[in-house]
Amino acid sequence: LAKLNTETSADNFIHFINRDSVERYVVFIKNGDLKVYDLAGTEMTVNFTASKTYLNATTPRTSFAVVTIADFTFIVNKEVTTAMTADVTAGTLGGTDQDFDDLPTSPTTGDIRKIEGDPSNNFDNYYVKFNGSAWEECALPNILNTFDGTTMPHKLVRTGVNTFEFDVVSWTTRLIGDDDSNPKPTFVGSKLNDIFLHKNRLGLLSGENCIMTSTPSSDFNFWRETATTLIDSDPIDVAASHTKVSTLHHAIPFDKTLLLFSEQTQFLLSSANVLSPKTVSIDVTTQFETSSDVSPVGAGANVYFTVPSGDNTSLYEYYVEDEVVTNDASEITSHVPTYVPKNVFQIEASSNEDVIFALTSEDRNHMYVYKYFWQGNEKVQSAWSRWTFDSTDTILGIKIIETDLFVVVKRADGTFLDKILTQKKLVDTSMPFLVLLDRKTEVTGVFDSGTNLTTWTLPYEFSGTVNVVLGTSFTGKTGQLVSSPSRPTNTTVTATGDFSAGKCFIGIPYTYKYKFSEQFLRDSSLNPIRDGRLMIKHMTLNYTDSGFFTVDVTPKFRDTNTNIFTGQRLGSNLTVGTVNLLTGAIRFP
What we know:
The protein has one helix and 45 strands. A hairpin with a 2-residue loop joins strand 3 and strand 4 (about 35-40). By secondary structure, it is mainly beta. The protein is elongated. About 0% of the residues lie in helices and about 45% in strands. Strands 5-13-12-7-6 form a five-stranded mixed sheet.
């Protein structure tokens, strides 16, 4: 789609903003800086109201957690320790009263008194201030009351079309109580691991705690509204209790609850009816050793997460069985345990196309792909494959938007944005079939009668081999390959003859390989019979919209036999010079 910049670092953090069908952006975070591009590769204006210091990170790719809510994108730097400023609550404590009825009858404006309540219980103390006409609840004077915004999550706000602002968040200050009745959130003095939105509350993970703002989340408030009673809209700060160390790294809303991931245990945060500090609880749901660097993803009714497995990675599918009221996870790499390398750093899922993509640090020019298909309650397809990019490419990040996979990839001369169409049964515009080429583009050539050459200009730089496929403007030749195109420069393609009648498809040819599953006879219960020796006499291959192809069969310790399908069948309507596509089946020994 575009060349984003000339960055050649392989460790930058990538985040996509899918605002609506018109406005979609790529956020590019590197050590000490941030850039935003639209999907055409145009750089957006970012006004930095806050310092870029918060963006400093030794490993940006794994040091940031990001969530987008409408026009706000909240950014967490996992390397920064949160803190309070030196600001304290104003005033001077004038004295202590046992009950509210014991307050002075002739106070002075600004007087602050402590209502002690039960002397043996510090949690029922509260403070009131006379505002000139009445007593109102306030905070104990001279206690810390303000978060240091430079250490807290920052916001990237869309302020207009193609314009963003990077700024600190105006977090609410502590207005009532003291360190007993309205204590500092548990994240203060610690680092943050994740940020999320759940049931209109903005949430943070820090250590073993899940901390959420009061409602509505736009208040950015982590303090109680009153010290005299706990109300449903107050912030939530709850720990995941377990015999194992349970540092929470990821949170994902799932099945009306919040699924929390530590390295060894998974928890469910839930509450009866309304989510409130009165009813919230965290319960153990499963115990798998998961990777802290990979954010789980949801797709349909399932959540997918990774589990380290020596030099490889296992992927698991978390699900809820309503009939037996149980939560569990099943491994989807059990039939290919050594296929996906270790150190996966991103997974992305599409519920529209039933596909999951995985990126790994061990294999940066490959994308591992899991394709599945459910038929009722039975999963009838569970297939893994690998997409290979050029050996010099490094995939930085991916995102599924509708049925398209957007890929940010670093090449020798910069960072590019590519798009892969994952939708089934696609065809090219005005073509009867899909032209299968990488970095495909439609270009109209310019013919030079003096040299008898047609020249096409590419919208990108590439010095390798390309194919040129004739479009529908070439009557009787649609779909044909132009023979022996040459490459005068990195952006031009030439061929002998006049091919300027209309648009041609130009792109990079690639190899597609498919490995058949091992064949088994099955018993009456459909279990595979593994005893004995299976001999297959014939096989039938179904094909759709296919031209010429060969089927090569190599039995063990014997020569290869080649079976040819010519793309022609007796009784077919064939036209000389055109690409003839047929649908049917071929049977071969």
